[in-house]
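Why do we care about 3D structure at all? Because function follows from shape, and shape follows, mostly, from sequence. That is the central idea of this module. The next example makes it concrete: a single protein chain, its amino acid sequence, and then its structure expressed as tokens.
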Amino acid sequence: MFEKVLIANRGEIALRIHRACQEMGIKTVAVHSTVDANAMHVKLADEAVCIGPAPAKDSYLNKAAIISAALITGADAIHPGYGFLSENADFAEMVAAHGMTFIGPTPEMIRKMGDKVTAKKTAIESGLPVVPGSDGDVKTIEEALAWGDKIGYPVIVKAAAGGGGKGMKVAHSKEELADAFTLAKREAKSSFANDTVYIEKYLQTPRHIEVQILADNHGNVVHLGERDCSLQRRHQKVLEESPSPALNDEQRQKIGEIATSAMKKMGYSNVGTIEFLYENGQFYFLEMNTRLQVEHPVTEMVTGIDLVREQIRVASGAVLGYTQKDVHFSGYAIECRINAEDPETFIPSPGKIGSWHAPGGLSVRVDSGMYAGYTVPSCYDSMVAKLIVHGRSRNGALMRLKRALEEFVIEGISTTIPLHQKIITHPDFIDGQYNIHWLEKFLENNKKD
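And the structure:
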């Protein structure tokens, strides 16, 4: 087992990793930018190293600075968390080249699944169902139009190196496709320095269902159920729950077995999430995230399995120690992402937190690095907390979530707590009747009101 782990991240996920390490008897090293000197994970870690100024490109994305911090402090492994360098194959290779362990999948697997075109080809080879679309990248408008005629409209143009909804444009006709193709390539080039795009059939009312995978380096793979992440704004997840209210037990078992089988064929190791679009009883592979997900706590709540602990264990060479039959699911869990944003305009609201009171009680969990007096910086992601609740039934979880949101106090900045309060009391959400377009329509209707 590792003796010291450097956490190459910030905020709640850095604190989450620190806590898992502490419970395993592993010392931690926090890295931070100048603006994060007073962050909670920095205060609690055994050691801390400043790696640069506030801009992420000069600190949390500075590979050389992070590697240097790990070498100076004698860390024998690096945990990347999510975001930043978590899916950067070059960084994973650098970590290994300097005699340390990257807590995640192999660089080869990160590279293969990071390119959406390659990932789709790999998915097909591994037996995963995919959305009808181009069999590779699309280079010209003429080629795009040909694919539009072949698979039928509407279609969506996607950046091969994309993420976070960038480089994605929908076209409902030939006339729209030409502009969508040009805009998607331009945005992909600007956001990812890679203008490669591909085309898929655009599903009208799908749900976003993802399956959590856990695998060791000895060929053992299990799935930890699914999460429903359909409540999204501009392709960004807002609320997640497990299990999905859209699936029955037979469908749940089917997609879990398909995902597990595919990961075995790929030879995948560590944690990973296979994302699907689900419509009319059919699953379609969307992408794979070769890292820990923001919404991993809902899976932990329904399985009782500490995903970060398991990441560290399997990265150290340990065997999983259990099979699929040993994974038991209990109750329902829901997570709300609380952002420092105006709940109606979504304008970021950085600033100093006045009062801070996190809700508590049975089966209520808050993952956050915030505290009274802390100043939320303007240069990073706006999420300040994740509120997760668990209940024996979905209705029980909803009632607990309603109470917890009412109890949550964050003063000094605006947050999206009021938005979550509206969402979870809407009849559609209570009945589990929503898809990936529901939230944006809900927000549009609220504007009109």
